[in-house]
UniProtKB/TrEMBL annotation:
Keywords tagged on the record: Ammonia transport, Membrane, Transmembrane, Transmembrane helix, Transport
Pfam families: Ammonium_transp
One CC-aspect GO term: plasma membrane
Organism listed in the record: Geodia barretti (Barrett's horny sponge)
One annotated GO biological process: ammonium homeostasis
GO molecular function, one term: ammonium channel activity
Subcellular location: Membrane
Membrane topology term: Multi-pass membrane protein
Domain Ammonium transporter AmtB-like: 8-118
Entry protein name: Ammonium transporter AmtB-like domain-containing protein
Length: 161
């Protein structure tokens, strides 16, 4: 089971990075056709891939791989739009990559999480999940935090009985 989680995490990360890069390449091509501009901006392509990785890293263990595509698809361009609307001048595009995409990645844990994957990951993390050891209490508290509004009376959080 633990090896399946590692494979799923790697797949999720690769899908998000690919969706961000492909989206940037398509949009850059459309802009190039519309403006008759002769080159692609490789910095923007790299930023889109990094932004997708930033967005998916926080939630990659808790979501199904198909959800990685919409997570990485539009967020960099949304961040650039927010930066433009706020009137920020950021030549390196640090704000869209780290602030906007980082916040989006934080929210994705709650929006796209799969409760079965959360349970599977934490049961494999510590075989004593339902014991009374202090490590079990910490893991239960973290599971409750990751569930973000999940059922407080779930067996994962409260243990048996």
């Amino acid at each position: 089971m633990a090896h399946a989680a590692v494979g799923r995490i790697c797949t999720t990360i690769c899908l998000a990075a690919a969706s961000g890069g492909v989206t940037q390449a398509i949009l850059s091509g459309l802009v190039q056709m519309a403006s008759r501009h002769a080159h692609y901006n490789t910095n923007e392509l790299a930023n889109a891939v990094v932004a997708s990785l930033v967005a998916v890293t926080g939630c990659c263990a808790f979501i199904s791989p198909p959800w990685a595509i919409p997570i990485g698809f539009f967020i960099y361009h949304t961040g650039c739009f927010i930066e433009y609307c706020l009137g920020l001048h950021d030549g390196a595009r640090v704000f869209p990559v780290h602030a906007v995409c980082g916040l989006w990645g934080l929210l994705c844990v709650g929006v796209f999480r799969n409760t079965c994957l959360v349970r599977e990951l934490y049961e494999n993390l510590c075989y004593c999940l339902n014991s009374d050891l202090p490590s079990s209490v910490m893991i239960r508290a973290e599971c409750h935090t990751i569930q973000m509004g999940g059922d407080v009376h779930s067996p994962l959080v409260t243990g048996p009985g």
